[in-house]
Write a structure and sequence with these properties.
About 40% of the residues lie in helices and about 25% in strands. It is α+β, with helices and mostly antiparallel strands. β5 and β6 (about 90-100) form a beta hairpin. The longest helix has about 35 residues, at about 150-185. The model is unreliable at about 5-15 (pLDDT under 50).
């Protein structure tokens, strides 16, 4: 359950909250805020690798929108997309906002929790409800990267030395071969049997493998792997939004599996088991 934070950690930190709470009470809606949380599908990424930051809020009231929800500042991250979905049920309203982000530099980044200002329907007082902060570590992409000129020169020297040694070894091998040919007759080469290449894997094969792994151990990593393979099977990349994936395929069965993967990954925790079973069933139906 989300809890309003009323302590003052300092004037500068509390100023935005004080301004919000100083507004007339009738300017804020009265809401029962039962949950407000935030999580990332990947907490360790590389520069240029797209990931998603999802904010989930649940209120007991049935509302068409939750405009009071304020997402965190993404800093130097490149915002690729911002998609918000609203689902109502007998228990109230669930709002999930998904930010698609691309890191542009390495380092450790902490996203402050999303928040919303409302009149707490329990205490009838203006309050600020805040989600948890999320920390993401961004590393440089794999490859030849040099921290400074000295490291570059050191590696370049090693490459040159390795090249010289390779040339010396090749020359020695050539001399040995020439002398050997002078002493022994040339053998007739025997053609090696041609081995046909293995059959090329398809996106459907990747989805089947990911589904088997998720059914065996339905952890968050296996869930995100299954979601990514479904996006690729639809013709979108792993960093696309659900709307992008729908736009790239007309296969209804695949669209059902995509919807189930999105609900399971970013939907409310109390329906995770039902969403997971639906994800397995819809993915199996598409694989048939």
């Amino acid at each position: 359950m989300a809890r309003p934070r009323r302590g003052l950690a300092g004037f500068a930190a509390a100023l935005p909250l004080a301004l919000a709470l100083a507004a007339p009470a009738d300017a804020l809606r009265a809401l029962h805020v039962d949950a407000l949380s935030m999580r990332a599908d990947h907490t360790r990424v590389q520069v240029g690798q797209v990931f998603h930051l999802a904010i989930h809020a649940h209120v007991r009231e049935r509302v068409g929108a939750l405009d009071e929800l304020v997402v965190p500042d993404v800093g130097t991250m490149k915002l690729e997309g911002d998609e918000r979905s609203v689902t109502t049920s007998a228990s109230g309203t669930d709002v999930v906002e998904t930010l698609t982000l691309e890191p542009t530099q390495s380092g450790a980044f902490t996203f402050n929790g999303a928040y919303l200002d409302a009149v707490d329907a329990r205490t009838h007082k203006p309050s600020r409800f805040s989600a948890n902060a999320v920390r993401v570590v961004v590393a440089q992409p794999e490859g030849l990267f040099y921290d400074n000129a000295a490291a570059m020169l050191w590696r370049l020297g090693g490459i040159v030395l390795a090249g010289i040694l390779a040339l010396v070894a090749a020359a020695a091998a050539l001399v040995f071969i020439v002398r050997r040919r002078r002493r022994t007759p040339v053998a007739v080469p025997v053609a090696e049997p041609v081995v046909p290449p293995p059959p090329q894997r398809t996106p459907r094969d990747d989805v089947a493998d990911a589904l088997r792994a998720y059914r065996t151990a339905p952890a968050n990593g296996a869930l995100m792997r299954l979601r990514e393979t479904l996006f690729v099977a639809a013709g979108a990349n792993a960093g696309s939004t659900l709307r992008d994936a729908h736009a790239r395929t007309a296969d209804r069965a695949l669209r059902d599996a995509l919807d189930a993967a999105e609900r399971t990954a970013f939907g409310p925790a109390h329906v995770r088991d039902v969403s997971s079973a639906d994800l397995i069933a819809t993915t199996q139906a598409w694989l048939r």
